[in-house]
Amino acid sequence: MKWRVPLNSGYSGPAVADGRVFITDWAEDPESRTVDGTERAIALDEETGEIIWQKDFIKDFDSQIPTYGITSAPIVEGDHLITTVGAEGGLVMAFDKRTGEEVWRALEPVQEIGYPQPVIIDAGGARQLIIWHPAALVALDPATGEVHWKEDWETLYGMSVATPVRHGNYLLVTQFYGGSLMMKLDQDRPGASLLWKGQSRSEMPGETDGLHSMITTPIMEGNHVYGVCSYGELRALSAVTGERVWVSDEMVAQARWGTAFFVKHRDRYFVNNDDGFLMIAQFTPEGYVEQSRTKLIEPTSSAGFGPRKAFDRTVNWTHPAYANRHIFQRNDNEIIRASLDAADY
Question: CB neighbours of 197 closer than 8 A, spacing ≥ 6?
Fold first, then answer.
């Protein structure tokens, strides 16, 4: 372990760029009779952990925190740090990464702001900032915030969670209740058209027709999609048609909102499941192949809420960051930096 820094609660994963670690957290106000608190955006030095600048979304932008908090990680594009905020006219905002000054804001929040993770792609001869919020899948110009294209696709309870995935000319999003949607990206301009969409509207086992992810962002390899469905099943789909190819129960606990996070490294993937394990694995058209696993961090968040205590278990629903042969991971108590270099052990 290289360092650990105390942190407040939250689901957002860290982002690492140019020697800085960007993260958000939230602390409940003990004086409040309701669930009020402070949301922060924090920049840490990658080596020492010192704070460079921070933003309070509630105080600075009058943002409304969605039911499960702010979960998306900021991303760095050129001189900008881009993140979801939920300000008036600014569901998404860009800040100067060195000073924290506002550069632009885009999209009006509809219902809750959702839980979207911004991603940047190059397609149709342009840089595109992809935002999937509770009402639509949208592509923005990351330099200005102007809209390139959008596809309306409503989600229940604001749950736009899994990150959009681009593979070649295809762009995939998946949701808990509505299944998956595949877009085909235009090659000569920044546009897109619908290729296929799941037809099931139930997340219950035996009633899902393809892939109904809650938190897990799927991956695409060749002509296949691999992802975790609503109750923890690892599934492979045809990327061309959306039809199911195989299922596995080896990687994630078979529980509602079962979750894992995938990061590719050469011909393998680093996989973090919600029990706090780090695994190395391969995904093939024939099945799932696990090569190793180790316990990385303690899960601290409760998966249950309200009347759904039957689903209650302790989980880690945070995507890690990988940089400079290290992994950066957080729970509700701390953020850690651990080496992946064999020479350190």
Answer: 179, 180, 181, 182, 242
